[in-house]
Amino acid sequence: MPLESWTDPEEAPALAATATAMIDAALVGSGLTREDYWAAVLKGYNTPYNDPQPRVRQTAAAPEAARPASIEAPHEMPPLPVAAMAAIAAEARAG
């Protein structure tokens, strides 16, 4: 099956020169060299499509001294009516 091309072989050098000029213009002021640009292009094309396997994260155990002690109420609180508890909850949400 023959390939159909919209580009004439005589046009190839002019198109290559235009593409080179466009790449050079894009690299001006970026701090990248042509080698850096093409290395990034090659890396992008050579990167596999499959996602890499997730890395297993190692978590350090917390030291015993850093764990909080159990919190105890200093005294027994008297039971509050429902209206008072609702007012305290509303005040806590507002503040």
Describe the overall structure.
By secondary structure, the chain is mainly α. The protein has three helices and no strands. It is elongated and about 95 Å long. 0% of the residues are buried. The model has no long low-confidence stretch (mean pLDDT 78).
Termini gap = 76 Å
Counting helices, strands and paired strands, the structural category is: mainly alpha
The gyration radius over C-alpha positions equals 34 Å
The sequence of SSEs as H and E is HHH
Compute the number of strand runs. 0
Q: Could you give a short account of the major beta sheet?
A: none
Bulk shape: elongated
Question: Could you estimate the helical fraction of the residues in percent?
Answer: 40-55%
Observed structural traits:
single chain; 95 residues; mainly alpha; 44% helix; 0% strand
